[in-house]
Design brief:
Chains A, B: GO terms for molecular function: DNA-binding transcription factor activity; transcription cis-regulatory region binding. Chains A, B: InterPro entries: Homeodomain-like_sf, HTH-type_TetR-like_transc_reg, Tet_transcr_reg_TetR-rel_C_sf, TetR_C. Chains A, B: Keywords: DNA-binding, Transcription, Transcription regulation. 2 copies of one chain form a homodimer. The first copy, chain A, is mainly alpha-helical. Helices cover 71% and strands 0% of the residues of chain A. The longest helix of chain A is centred in the C-terminal third of the chain and has 28 residues.
Chain lengths: 217, 217
Amino acid sequence: MSAPSPETPRADAGAPETSSRRGRPGRPREEGLDARLVEAALALIDSGEPVTAAKLVQLSGVSRAAVYRRWPSLTDLVATALDRGRDAHVIPIDGDLRAALHDAFLGGYEQRMAGYPEARMRRRLALGLADPVLQRAYWDAHVARRRVSTIAVLRAGVEQGLLRADTDLEACADLLSGVFYYQLVVRGVSLTDAEALARCRAAFEVIWRGMSAEAGE
Amino acid sequence: MSAPSPETPRADAGAPETSSRRGRPGRPREEGLDARLVEAALALIDSGEPVTAAKLVQLSGVSRAAVYRRWPSLTDLVATALDRGRDAHVIPIDGDLRAALHDAFLGGYEQRMAGYPEARMRRRLALGLADPVLQRAYWDAHVARRRVSTIAVLRAGVEQGLLRADTDLEACADLLSGVFYYQLVVRGVSLTDAEALARCRAAFEVIWRGMSAEAGE
């Protein structure tokens, strides 16, 4: 999963028209409309303005009818816009699992952040806190799918006997991500801050040791 | 530390008048002003309105001059208001450290949340994400002080040889809290949700095992 395709958000939001849209591949003009809508939504979000149909029509040139035909709700469009540029976290499970997981969470952090500015991340989280419906839509359509890769590497670790058999995969995925969010959401420090990254690195060691089969079994 | 006294926020924000105020104990009328200002700020926050001097004057009946005499900045007043009702997390270090830490993070969660509604927690985090100055003020005056107790119990664990000598106390405190914030900020589920609490409980076990001296040394 790289940048979200225009297809995926509707599929994940369970839009009834999904299958018919999937059956119409290669309609560049239609896909162009989605891209323009996502761009317009992102421009509004980044400028701190509420995303309304009127503003979207004005900025994108797409008709109001087309907006609602293409997106079951503006919430899904906003969620997709907020995901633009986020890293994919696809973790290989055919090699050193610990190194792969470490690299996924701690490798090349600066580069990764470059594609997804911190200001947008702050706005995404703030919008979600203010609007639980958007928060759940974003989780369902984007976060939950991205986590699949983290869960897969943890499961492989359990299957290989590297991690404890009783490892709670969901809880450990939350733990791995949670310490990063804590830096931005509670401490208010940038995720490129050297001390913040050092804490996240130390936390990773604690988590890995806590999950390891050698450690407690 | 229970509910923040009207004295503490100015002391923590480094207000120059702090020492003189501390030298004037028992001035109920003055303390009454602070309480009214915090109440007024909280009413504005809870209703989603911005906290302005004009609104504070209108709601509290305290004069504009008195507002600015008593609070170096409205940011500090907002931070104090946002902390109203938050649990103290004072953890005993003279008994079973693991049980004490577990109880501090996972015991009586429903009761604790009752004193600090989730809506206010969401608003506090959203306001902080939108305003890094407020976020830092809240961290410095409130979170950092509350964390002292968590850090103290971890340090006692290291000193007793229960936890690894190389335990990064700050990173582990972030880790312990981070998984709770993740539920609300990213998953968008309530901290009283049974599955969310089960994940936090499982995460606590992983963290404790990962810090334990027996586990890796």
